[in-house]
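Much of our argument rests on the idea that a fold can be written as discrete symbols. The amino acid sequence and the backbone structure tokens for this protein are reproduced below:

___
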Amino acid sequence: MAIFSKSNVPQFSVDVYQNEYLPEGGREVNAVVTVTATGGGTIGSAVAAPHLYSPGEGPSAAVVLMVDCSGSMDCPPTKMRNARDATAAAVDTLRDGVHFAVVAGTHLAREVYPCEGGLAVAGPDTREQAKQALRKLSAGGGTAIGTWLRRADRLLASADVAIRHGILLTDGRNEHESPEDLKAALDACAGRFTCDARGVGTDWEVKEVTGIASALLGTADIVADPAGLAADFTQMMETAMGKEVADVSLRLWTPAGATVTFVKQVAPTVEELTGRRTEAGPRAGDYPLGSWGDESRDYHLCVEVPPAAVGQEMLAARVSLVIPHSDGSVQNLGAQGLVRAVWTDDLAASTSINPQVAHYTGQAELAEVIQEGLDLRKVGDMDGATAKLGRAVQLASASGNADTAKLLAKVVDVVDAATGTVRLKAKVEEADEMTLETRSTKTVRVKK
């Protein structure tokens, strides 16, 4: 384990969990890498958070809140009121000195506060002015989320800060722009800011909201009852205020002849990172990890190495943490981990599966079979849905994922969790099905 230490910023550490032993001729090496950041400050602190850059550069963070103000937000009228109150609660949670703006989203994107097209700096006066502006928000118009994201990007880019973050709320489907338009907006914004996305009620599209959060390295969730928005927005903003270091990447070096099969985040949620690799020199690539505060995340790596004879060993991969800059320079955070391959004729050693690898392989399968099962249910393939969701119940039970097990029990009647024997419920509340789909990628961590 290596640790990066610098005054007033988190210390980063990397731990590698694996079974390094392969049979003669074996090629596949699996490892779980735990990245931990500690000592960066208190989440929600009233003191402006320091960051990795020189003092005096200005506020450390900028946040844009994007609030759906389409016509459907008026059905019922309490939904719009709850959205206004939630946004006000988030504004109250901003630290002094943080740049911020509020955008009203319809088929257009309109700045609610400040109105002159820039960002305000959080303080007692600007918080109160923002809350007064929020009281004037009303529902009307369509939904074009890509437009909201592009406006947020322009606003966030105007601030010379370390952390750029968005919070997006929608209650409906993205009906006033094409899926290609939204994808283009996400591609344009990826790597420029992180974004948490929330769906309120049950009239929105789960894959749209989770896709936004995934592309922009944020979180996604459902708030089925609009009355819960204020608490959710407050928690989201507290977490955003706890971020200290932006644009961290996991750099993976592999030796000649080795191939990276996949890289995925497996805790606290499953997130595929393989396709997001950016080349970083000979046999090295960077995988974006987003912004960090005091937290720990797990990543599953799979590398294919050249086969070798019994008794040989090699370094299969070297993991490090870096911050790539736009000018081509790289800030190395000092934390490093090594993934090894050792060929042996000891059958017990070479067939043993590391507990962390086994656990997260199951968690990734759990997320996959839930999505597949719900998709099959939607198209009327009840036998297929039953088989997939039964497997999900089995995996959730075996791994101790109690939260997911509870959500599954609202969609299926569990006959025997250990064997995955279930029956589809004849009637399922739409909010329960959407909650299961939205939270299907949430994992439990293995006890180490």
